[in-house]
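QA checklist item 7 of 12: single-chain prediction sanity check.
[x] sequence parsed
[x] length recorded as 253
[x] structure emitted
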Amino acid sequence: MNKKKDSNPPLPWLDESDVFPSIAHAWGVGTDAPGLLAAGGDLSAKRLLEAYRLGIFPWFSHGQPILWWSTDPRMVLKPEDFKLHRSLKKSLQSFIQTLGCEIKIDHDFLTVIRNCSSSKRTGQRGTWITPEMIQAYFTLHLQGHAHSVETWVNGEMVGGLYCVAIGHAIYGESMFSRVSNASKIALSALVCFAKANNIELIDCQQETEHLTSLGGAPIARDAFLKSISKAQLLPSPDWRFQTEHWLELGLIL
């Protein structure tokens, strides 16, 4: 006999002045959308920062209301668990030893997020980066709370990713590639940056095969919240990528 799926509980609707409900009320396993917490509200910088501090993130497609999520378990990438596969290591070694190849941070955030919005990739959420989301995260970037890690070759951006950061808590959002391995190179650079600054984990929100292949793993939401609550209290690192950071992965400069 098939197990009957639980009915979906009522979904709170947020007005602009409403606070988030407790994440304990997020929909659980057996519902249509495990992790779904609330709908509505706004995408102001204040609202977004409040969400990330509580382990909540927005994810919705064009034509939907703003939807807020708090998944359990939570997908994270611990820098020490990053899997540097042989092919990626070879690509990274070639990248760092080739003139004209460089990593830049926050050089062109808007281009990164626009490319993430238009890219379609297996295991990546693409349609959720709507124009209003682009504007919201660009505002966060201007306030110093959102960052881009960019892969450049001969003066052209060929890949990158963007994330939200509060203190030492890093919340990964999306990535894109125009050439093979460009986004993986950007992620590798973020891992090196995190290791160099003693950052314990990078939030990946939801599990995908791609992230699992690179060392990502799900952890209990309580453990995730405990980690970010401490990390958020630490001073923000200097968001600059140094060539020496590659040594964190044992690469030869």
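[x] summary fact logged: The chain has a mean pLDDT of 94.
[ ] second reviewer sign-off
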